[in-house]
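Milestone 3.1: sequence recovery, worked example.
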């Protein structure tokens, strides 16, 4: 288990639903923003079936949840939030979704992307990973590599002024698994305040005891009090990245 001190210059987080980032990676996002990173969120759905109240329509729920998600992003210093508005509960890893994610990657040009783990099906003995989480994870991974970096794939995006871009690190969230831990001791309070912005999901439930328990378990053996864990895939080394940036600067 290693404690990561890495801070990207620009990072994108791609998830299925409002509140997925706050449960999974908002402590890391807050730490990266404090370290100077620019961060963008991409929400595949707006959680439109996630408010089970009599008379609540999908359109009303989506509107409520986008307001909550935008506030949760702002709580950790993120002001660029993209809503793709795919149907909640029916998210598909389609070529169309891959194109939309490639568009956002080519627009924002992140060095690192945080996404969900598409391989997680079972979580302990008491939870089945949501199909939208699996679809969002697969679509994100497939957009990151190799699609976003291939100029002749989704080449129609060039008409929007978007050029191919290769993110170089992928941080995959797998609940409490993963060999890289990010210390969120200094940002767990920000994570909790972001999570509490999702009032429609909390319904009086206080997330603090569970979140502290989960993130303290994730920190076991690292020396940190609280951590979030990831599988980290490095597609381009620090050396090659520095060289590529130098080449871009030289024009
Ligand atoms: Zn979710």
């Amino acid at each position: 288990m290693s404690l990561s001190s890495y801070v990207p210059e620009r990072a994108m987080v791609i998830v299925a639903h409002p509140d997925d980032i706050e449960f999974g990676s908002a402590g890391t996002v807050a730490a990266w923003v404090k370290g100077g990173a620019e961060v963008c969120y991409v929400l595949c759905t707006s959680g439109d079936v996630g408010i089970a109240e009599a008379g609540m329509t999908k359109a009303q729920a989506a509107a409520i949840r986008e307001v909550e998600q935008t506030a949760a992003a702002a709580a950790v210093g993120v002001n660029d939030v993209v809503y793709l508005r795919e149907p909640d509960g029916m998210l598909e890893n389609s070529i169309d979704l891959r194109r939309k994610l490639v568009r956002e990657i080519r627009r924002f040009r992140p060095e690192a992307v945080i996404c969900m783990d598409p391989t997680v099906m079972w979580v302990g003995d008491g939870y089945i990973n949501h199909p939208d989480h699996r679809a969002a994870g697969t679509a994100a991974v497939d957009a990151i590599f190799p699609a976003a970096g291939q100029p002749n794939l989704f080449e129609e995006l060039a008409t929007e002024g978007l050029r191919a871009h290769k993110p170089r690190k992928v941080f995959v969230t797998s609940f409490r698994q993963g060999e890289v831990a990010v210390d969120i001791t200094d940002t767990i309070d920000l994570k909790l305040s972001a999570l509490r912005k999702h009032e429609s999901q909390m319904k009086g439930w206080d997330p603090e005891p569970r979140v502290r328990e989960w993130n303290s378990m994730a920190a076991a053996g690292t020396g940190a009090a609280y951590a979030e864990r990831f599988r980290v895939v490095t597609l381009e080394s620090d050396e090659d990245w520095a060289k590529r940036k130098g080449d871009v600067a030289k024009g």
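The CA atoms of residues 10 and 38 lie 5 Å apart. Strands lie at 2-4, 10-15, 38-45, 80-86, 112-116, 122-123, 127-128, 169-173, 180-183, 227-234.
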